[in-house]
Specification:
This protein has 108 residues and is an alpha+beta fold. The chain is 23% helix and 27% strand. Helix 1 crosses helix 2.
């Protein structure tokens, strides 16, 4: 059986889910949160028409580590409505330390 990695199967599935959300559910905007190390999913999101809008530093607690997340978004309405804002990836940083009760917000 051939691998689906190079056949854009994931991007095709994401495009179908996106179309269902826009056309069937009338959702005006979709957001995806992707860990920066997951370059395959970043390509998948871009291949499905989602645009990277920024980096949320220390956004999500994964295990015992606060992780950064890229934000990808797509607006319903078509390519004329999509705005491309691309920021270069930032270098990795040491993980933040979660508070005893869970997520500890970063101080400026």
């Amino acid at each position: 059986m051939r691998s689906a990695r190079r056949l854009d199967a994931a991007a095709g599935a994401l495009r179908k889910v996106t179309a269902c959300a826009f056309d069937g559910l009338r959702i005006p905007r979709l957001r995806l949160f992707v860990e920066p190390w997951n370059t395959a999913y970043c390509r998948t999101a871009e291949g499905a028409g989602h645009v990277r809008e920024g980096l949320l530093r220390g956004w999500r607690l994964v295990g015992e580590e606060c992780c950064d997340m890229f934000v990808y978004a797509r607006l319903g309405g078509g390519p004329a409505d999509w705005r491309r804002v691309v920021q270069p990836p930032r270098p990795p940083r040491p993980p933040c330390r979660p508070a005893a009760g869970g997520y500890a917000p970063r101080r400026a």
